[in-house]
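Message: I would love a firmer grasp of how sequence relates to backbone shape in proteins. Thank you; the sequence and its tokens follow:
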Amino acid sequence: MSIHPWANRTRLTLHHSIASYFPPARGRLDNIKELQSTSLETTVVVNGFFLDYFVAPKVPSYQPPFAMVLDIANNTAAIPGSGDVPVVFTHTFDIARFVPALLSKPKWDKTSYIIGDNVTWNEFLALAEEAKGVKFTVVHDSVETLKTGAITELPSHPSMYATFPKPMLQGMFAAFGVMFEDGAFDLSPASTLNDEFPEIKARKVKELVFEAWK
């Protein structure tokens, strides 16, 4: 079993496109290929982007806050591209409920999808503004800018630079920005673990953002 915090579509071509500008993806693809060449039964768990980054530590999580795109604490956003492409967000505690259920299945699919919620960055921004009762300072980073490895610096970023140097952080965030706008996190599989285990209710973006910030 391999759990992907970065998401994919079923189209392998998109995977390879991501690997061309985000090297960690290449390692993941190689690992999956190697696993699938063995006699082991495997599944790749695809869960979209971690919602924890925007609600921790106000909502319990083992993930630290990570201000990519939305810096909710500072009422600021740097939206990649149009901000109108849907993105799947899932809280890690919900992933931890689906995975044991997945282990109970008699046979695994090659890919197992977990969908917490599916909203655009513009919709997420509107929810954050509603929860906090303020209008954010908002800029949009063009895809052309993102492809150069640059993003608009958010107020929370400088505090990360001691452990995550600015060029590395900007490069990684820019790569994710391209993925968001390319639809890499816009998951619409025919079947999900949500469908197979309807008793497990994944929490929505609005619920957790309001819990954390209202």
Observations:
- The longest helix spans residues 166-182.
